[in-house]
């Protein structure tokens, strides 16, 4: 076995540490939001998660700038776009946060709520300039070079089924359950595929579509632009495909976006959404999701389950933490 260059190990060590440090921030947000599960107050749940995530991010060895945050979308005073996070001692980073992806899921006690952070090299995350929605398509590695957001959904379904070696009837497509998707849902079913309608949790739907071991083959439809950028960090680690086109809610938003130089016809690929090949995706379950369990009490401990992905190495780690709530920090 050849000797490993010690300098190479030293060079990558801070990045490895960063990935593990970020878990503490998503764990904190998930744990602090759990008292609000099922209590019908999504703003209280989100406020608790934001406060906890921000407090723990302040201890992380990085010089981060929030580029996808809470403030502009949710009128929140913390974790806003442009806020500096981290202790300032580490690498310069773009940071995307979603303390709760699925606030309504949390408030109603439904499965699929996550606490999420994505981090990449400074200046590498796409700036949507307050265009809050994007038409997206996400698939796993089999979909690379096969599916295309510009094609009709039926054509994409048939192409994906062929490359996967399955019947079209075996394909499952995740779509947010919204009136704007009524025709899309009808077209998916008309093509012979099944749907997995998502109440909320845009990030989880995309990540599941990119994973090889989920029951989802494709995720399509109009969802959050910030969530699309966060999902792209996971997709790059998973080797899948993500495409998006900006979608305006009204004429005023469209005019602002055009004035900022955005092109609504442009198809944004993974490298457009996150140009860095050294990015991280970290998620902790709040309520049970397909790939992580929600926070639960186990005797004197509270258990949190997280997933950490790094695009540079393609590493995916599952982390289970049992913590004493009386001593946890």
Automatic annotation (TrEMBL):
Biochemical pathway: Carbohydrate biosynthesis; gluconeogenesis
Residues annotated to bind Mn(2+) 2: 98, 101, 227
GO terms, molecular function: fructose 1,6-bisphosphate 1-phosphatase activity; metal ion binding
Required cofactor(s): Mn(2+)
Catalytic activity: beta-D-fructose 1,6-bisphosphate + H2O = beta-D-fructose 6-phosphate + phosphate
SUPFAM superfamilies: Carbohydrate phosphatase
Binding site for Mn(2+) 1: 46, 70
InterPro entries: FBPase_class-2/SBPase
Keywords: Carbohydrate metabolism, Hydrolase, Manganese, Metal-binding
GO cellular component, one term: cytosol
Stated family: Belongs to the FBPase class 2 family.
Xref: PANTHER family: FRUCTOSE-1,6-BISPHOSPHATASE 1 CLASS 2-RELATED (PTHR30447:SF0), FRUCTOSE-1,6-BISPHOSPHATASE CLASS 2 (PTHR30447)
Protein name in UniProt: Fructose-1,6-bisphosphatase
Annotated source species: Leucobacter komagatae
